[in-house]
Every structure is written in C-alpha cells, then in structure tokens.
Amino acid sequence: MSSVAFPRRLTLFTMWPSLAWAVLVALPALVLSVSPTDELQDADVPQSGYLPNHNVDPANLGSYVMQWRDTFNTNEMFHAKPLVWTPPGGANEYVTVVSNQNVIRVLDGLTGAVVQQRTLDPPFLASDAQCGDIPNTIGITSTPVIDPSTNITYLYSKGYKNGAAGGGAINGQYKLYAVRLPSL
Ligand SMILES: *[C@@H]1O[C@H](CO)[C@@H](O)[C@H](O)[C@H]1NC(C)=O
C-alpha cells in the first residue's frame, strides 16, 4: 500500500471557462470514452498514469471553481480515484466513488447529489491487517474500471468470508464485483 494521505471529504473541482470548454468539445472522442472527458479507469491502458482527455493543467488552477462538496459517513475515506462516466444517451456525466466502508455511490456530476448508493459486505477491519497504512476499515481501496460498452464497473472489495463483519485475518477475503451502472 502506498502511504499517500487521503482526504476524508471528497471534493471535486470542475472548471468551465468558455475557452477551455471550446477546446474540450473540439477533442475527438477517445475509444474508451462515451463523453470526451469521461474517465473510466485509473489511467490509460498501459498504466502510464496519465489520461490525455482532460483540461486539468496546473496553469489553469486559478480559474477552477468548486462546483460541489459531499461529506458522507464518519471515518469514511476514498482511497480510489473517482471515475467519471456518462450513461449512453444521458444528459451529463456521473461520478462514481467507492469507499473504505465498501459503499459505492453514483453522484450527479453537476450537483454532487447521490443518484444511487449500494453497500457491499462489511469491510475488513484495519486492526486485522497488522499494518498501519490504512486506518479504520479496508473496504475498496483500488480504483474500479468501467466498461462503457456494457455499463458495468468492475471493482475489488475486501471483507470477510460469508459476508461476516469480522473473523480475523485468516477469514479476510477479496471479492471481485461486476456492478451495473448507474443502478448498482
Ligand atoms: C447502457 O445504458 C443505456 C442507458 O441506460 C442503455 O440504453 C443500454 O442498453 C445499456 N447497455 C447495455 C449493454 O446494457
């Protein structure tokens, strides 16, 4: 696990200056994208860590405006990168966030309102991990991936065998989920 500090609150910044928007709409749609700025996975396919379809540039920081802010459960943290996806035929982008409490949420990209929410098995307890990297619970830590041709997102979630709420390290298990968006 990397020792990156993660914010307890999820805050997303979006910029809509007219110049940047004009540039955005001029971009050709990428193969994996439904909308030019959708972000369907952690990085590009070779995992270089960079997706070229965004206007997120340090030079533009001064023009960013906070669009919305969401605060969820106590001790809920978001280790995975939020993904951005536009439902086929949808009016605007949705943001999918997954947490250390094994909660998946689909948020409206324009307002931050919760469109859909699903709680998976109780999360694995950090106290069973004997490792100090992640506090409280270890639910979903890695970034999911979205397959835009099927509207399905794939993710790993850590909990215990048989969906138990505990049981020690020996009973810990990861499950790989395939979850339909946006209904979850
Ligand atoms: C994906 O979602 C859209 C919009 O809800 C729907 O029309 C389409 O049939 C879905 N695709 C699949 C493969 O289920």
Notes on the structure:
Keywords: Signal. InterPro entries: Quinoprotein_ADH-like_sf. The chain has one domain. About 5% of the residues lie in helices and about 30% in strands. The protein is built from one helix and eleven strands. It has a four-stranded antiparallel sheet, with no helix packed on it. A three-stranded antiparallel sheet has the order 9-10-11, with no helix packed on it. The N terminus is likely disordered. It binds 2-acetamido-2-deoxy-beta-D-glucopyranose (NAG). 2-acetamido-2-deoxy-beta-D-glucopyranose (NAG) binds next to loops.
What's the helix and strand layout?
Blueprint: E1 10-14, H1 18-26, E2 65-70, E3 83-85, E4 94-98, E5 103-108, E6 114-119, E7 124-125, E8 137-138, E9 145-147, E10 152-160, E11 172-180
Antiparallel strand pairs: 1-2, 3-4, 4-5, 5-6, 7-8, 9-10, 10-11
The structure holds 2-acetamido-2-deoxy-beta-D-glucopyranose.
Residues 87-89, 150-151 line the site of 2-acetamido-2-deoxy-beta-D-glucopyranose.
